[in-house]
Amino acid sequence: MAVSDEQLFGAWKTVLQLCKLRPGEFVTLLTSDDVHHQTLRAARLAASDLGGVVTVLTLPAMGAELSMSRDKTAYVGRTALAGNAAAMACLQKSDLVIDLMLLLFSKEQGEILAGGTRMLLAVEPPEVLVRLVPTEDDKRRVLAGARVLGAARTMHVTSAAGTALDCRLGDYPILTEYGFADEPGRWDHWPSGFLATWPNEGTANGRIVIDRGDIIIPFKSYAQAPVTLTVQDGYVRAIEGGFDAEFLRDYMESFRDPEVYAISHVGWGLQPRASWTALGLYDREATLAMDARAYAGNFLFSTGPNTEAGGTRDTPCHIDIPLRGCSVFLDDAPMVLDGAVVPAEQKA
Ligand SMILES: [Fe+2]
Questions:
Q1: How many Å lie between the centroid of ligand 1 and the Cα of residue 48?
Q2: Which H or E element spans position 168?
Q3: 301: CA distance to ligand 1 center in Å?
Q4: Using one digit for the tens of pLDDT, what is the confidence trace for 289-313?
Q5: Overall average pLDDT of the 89-93 stretch
Q6: What pLDDT digit, counting tens, does each position of 213-256 carry?
Q7: Is the pTM above the cut of 0.85?
Q8: Nearest to 290 by CA among 185, 197, 178
Q9: Are 175 and 108 in a shared domain?
Q10: How far is ligand 1, taken at its centre, from the CA of residue 193, in Å?
Q11: Buried-most residue among 7, 27, 162, 255 (CB within 10 A)?
């Protein structure tokens, strides 16, 4: 259903209040050619209504000739901010940046956050935003998971479909996504509700089976038959199965970059309001598929860059794959069993 301006304005006010926007703070809305204009309008009015000093900064879209789709995550890391010192100055002077463009994986995002600027990414269509307005309880559950994940030294993942993956943890930070940026230097993404970290370099080993019905992003398709990934020393070494495997193989090969095969972030979903099925109702270019990344009890793993974790693996191919029906253990303690969240403090 369509969203009224009033409802979207109210949602933005709620989220900006969760972001602790105070009167007099500098708020910059970063936009590009493909911005949702209703989102921009509502965000601008809400930020002004809360007393923010608002700037709208519009940069040209780029990378179309390099990417195979219009999806904002189909080619990551290079943005129109590179070499634009004037735009960088504006963003770095801001207390809060509302990223309606997608700076994720760019080195410029890290430079902006390093100065203490808060940053909130919001590029899903308005109706997804209003369905998944974040709450303080989302934050509570994600931080409860982060405490366990931050202390863990091993992750073990299994599934009835055949997944059996092990990795060591501890070298990389914990990514918490609860949907609002409420601390200096914090980045978050509305909508969200999950957490992750990155395996220590070279330690991911085993097998990941993408089962029928699991979602591969950015294809945003539901696999029709199992795909088996053989993981050795931190990299996917073989992709086997039917059509879905062939498609995934061909896509990854097209980047001609060995780093696209690295295992990137690993974690699990904690958002019961997000839906495994939502993606099936959408045109693939209409959504970033945050429902798929966040639905409660998924095991979300990815391949490609680790620059957002402070690593040096800078590759433009990032594939997120949330799996259903997995069991995720940290140092042998179950976080998820057969696709259901286990710890009471992580449940809604
Ligand atoms: Fe990802």
A1: 32
A2: strand 164-168
A3: 8
A4: 999 999 999 999 999 999 888 888 9
A5: 98
A6: 999 999 999 999 999 999 999 999 999 999 999 999 999 999 99
A7: yes
A8: 178
A9: no
A10: 13
A11: 27
Looking up tokens 């966040």 gives: 294
- Supply the range of the domain harboring residue 126: 5-131
CA of 4 to the centre of ligand 1 (A): 30
Give me ligand 1 centre to Cα 293, in Å. 8
Distance (Å) from CA 12 to ligand 1 centroid? 24
The pLDDT of residue 167 is above 80:
yes
77: domain CATH number is 3.40.50.980
| Cα 345 to ligand 1 centroid, rounded to whole Å | 24
Residue 204: closest CA among 177, 232, 181 = 232
Single residue among 98, 131, 164 that ends a domain in this structure: 131
* Distance from the alpha carbon of residue 3 to the mean position of ligand 1, in angstroms: 27
Tokens representing 155 are: 């992750």
Residue 132 Cα to ligand 1 midpoint, Å, equals: 19
Domain boundary pick from 131, 166, 198: 131
Q: Give every CB contact of residue 231 below 8 A, 6+ residues apart in sequence.
A: 165, 204, 205, 206, 207, 208, 237, 263
- What pLDDT band is residue 64 in, cutting at 50, 70 and 90? confident
Number of domains in the chain: 2
Q: 287 CA to middle of ligand 1, Å?
A: 15
Pair 77, 203 in one domain: no
The pLDDT of residue 192? 97
User: Cis link prior to 334 (omega < 30° from 0)?
Assistant: no
